[in-house]
Amino acid sequence: MPDNAVRRPTIIQVARLAQVSHQTVSRYLRHNGGLKPDTVRRVEAAIEELGYRPNLVARSMRTRRTGRLAVLLPAPALLLPTRLLSAAAAVAHEAGFLMEVVSVEGGPQERSERAWELISSGQVEGVLSLSSLPGLSDQPRTASSAAFVVVGEYDDELRGIGELADASVVGEIIEHLAGLGHRHFLHVAGPDAWSSARARRQVYLEVIERLGLVSHGVVDGDWSAQCAYDAVRALPDTSPVTAVIAANDPMATGAVRAALDRGWGVPQRLSVSGWDDLELGRFATPSLSSVVVDREEQGRVAMERLIALIRGEPEPDAARLPLNRLVLRESTGPAPVLG
């Protein structure tokens, strides 16, 4: 081996630094339990200091464990949930696993069949699916079958459903703006093919009616800044609309630009809110009021569930913050007094 080659830290080095036997370190890595808290702390500190990671190939040969996890995505997909996948990969890596992303073509039934092939193949220790897999739980399990968790928060084209499509925060936005004196609203919606867009439209209309406010229309948008820009530019100069509820941040950005191009201050003349809390919106002028969608938390929790299942541990505490949370910034403010 060349003199300048970087050697991987070994289990012997971890044991020496932690002042325990290598059998104790091996037991810790197998998650067998029964170790004293002080021993666990010393081993973890040594692993952290040395940057030790298990040799998955050697472990697989020795224990028949592969150290590999698979995340199943339907293919082809409109977009990839990169933030979710990055967070899940970090949890897997910290636990000593390699995470692979597997795209599976076909409808739900074909995906279920492919997933079962993977689960029963012995190639992976766990499978995490982001979309539903009908009938999978009915398949006969064997001792060698991999653990699997179905998140089910995405449809066949990785469009958010379930908690990701929860639109209740739209009601919070409208109630907040109504409390600031706003009575006349416009909604720039996302494409109807998205359940999240449909849900936000429905909640918008319901809350407007419940609070006795006035909606000046629902614009059928396409998630682009241009469609919201055009919608706000099309408002009459005498329009009483003082608040725009955009279904995502790019559309909110387009609405803000259109207002400024018309000489309307934001939020002095027009308040605008978005959704997704994209980084650009946080640094825009004015900064965007938006809805934080914590996809990182979703990825972490899903992977923690899978790893706990593999290890035979209790499911992690699910008492987390909601995935969708309102954050108020400069683009929303009190309603103006229009002459």
TrEMBL record:
The protein's name: LacI family transcriptional regulator
PANTHER family, A to Z: HTH-TYPE TRANSCRIPTIONAL REPRESSOR PURR-RELATED (PTHR30146:SF148), LACI-RELATED TRANSCRIPTIONAL REPRESSOR (PTHR30146)
Keyword list, A-Z: DNA-binding, Repressor, Transcription, Transcription regulation
SUPFAM superfamilies the UniProt entry points to: lambda repressor-like DNA-binding domains, Periplasmic binding protein-like I
Species of the source: Promicromonospora sukumoe
Cross-referenced SMART domains: HTH_LACI (SM00354)
Pfam families: LacI (PF00356), Peripla_BP_3 (PF13377)
Any GO molecular function: transcription cis-regulatory region binding
InterPro entries (alphabetical): HTH_LacI, LacI/GalR-like_sensor, Lambda_DNA-bd_dom_sf, Peripla_BP_I
Domain HTH lacI-type residues, every copy: 9-63
Annotated CDD domains: HTH_LacI
